[in-house]
Amino acid sequence: NSAKLRELVLQALDRNQEASVELKGFVDAELISRKDFNNIKIDSGYINNKYYYSVLLEFSDPLLNRFAIYDDELRLYLIDKSLNGNLSAQWAAKENRNFVFVQERFLTKDVLNIERLSIYEVFDTTAGLVYRSISKFVKNKITSTQIIEKISTDFIVTEISGKTDFNVINQVDTFYFYP
After folding, report:
1. How far apart are CA 134 and CA 125, in angstroms?
2. How many CB atoms are located within 10 Å of the residue 47 CB?
3. d(Cα 33, Cα 163) in Å, to the nearest integer?
4. Integer CA distances (angstroms), 102 to 6, 34, 58, 141, 173, in order
5. CA distance 113 to 115
6. Cβ distance 87 to 58 under 8 Å?
7. pLDDT of residue 164
8. Amino acid 48: pLDDT
9. Which DSSP string corresponds to 49-106?
10. Of 160, 157, 156, nearest in space to 146 by CA
11. Which stretches of the chain drop beneath a pLDDT of 50?
């Protein structure tokens, strides 16, 4: 459950070897003894009569951020170490498929505000990244967005819009799933 996962992460950060082994690499050598994390966020999804958990560990240094998916027996499905900024996760079911949407919010070079969306699909025995793209871009108070409009069995449809570039307003983009 969520409380147990949170406790395991805290124990692993505190050099507890048993907790580290149980988390299967989520807390690696880079993170051991680090107490300067911003947040630990754990959420769950219920898929095919089984609970799955997403774990976000956020640091000020984005190189240390971690995201993982476990099932209710603490089997590891995925670890992603490539996330930046402030993180949030949300579970969703679409077209009989199960996803975790992870949103990243960060500032680059003190000039650009960027939000990036990663979508992970969760299956019975594994999970994988199926989509990653910029979802919001702000420069000089000018905003462009890319919003998920539809997820089908074969593709993801997004709508791209920007306030000043009329060539971009309501532009549609399609991303295909490959078997």
Report:
1. 28
2. 16
3. 46
4. 18, 23, 12, 24, 20
5. 7
6. yes
7. 62
8. 82
9. TEEEEEEEEEESSGGG-EEEEEETT--EEEEE----SEEEEEEEEETTEEEEEEEEEE
10. 160
11. none
Name which of 112, 111, 131, 106 is nearest 121 in CA terms: 131
> What does pTM read for this prediction?
0.90
d(CA 94, CA 148): 12
Could you tell me the CA-to-CA distances from 109 to 50, 112, 114, 139 in Å, in that order?
43, 7, 11, 11
Whether the Cβ atoms of residue 115 and residue 136 lie closer than 8 Å to each other: yes
Residue 44 contacts residue 51 (beta carbons within 8 Å): yes
Summarize pLDDT for 74-120 with one digit per residue, the tens. Answer: 999 999 999 999 999 999 988 788 999 999 999 887 788 999 999 99
Q: Locate tokens 């791209």: which residue?
A: 160
Coil, strand, or helix at residue 138?
A: strand
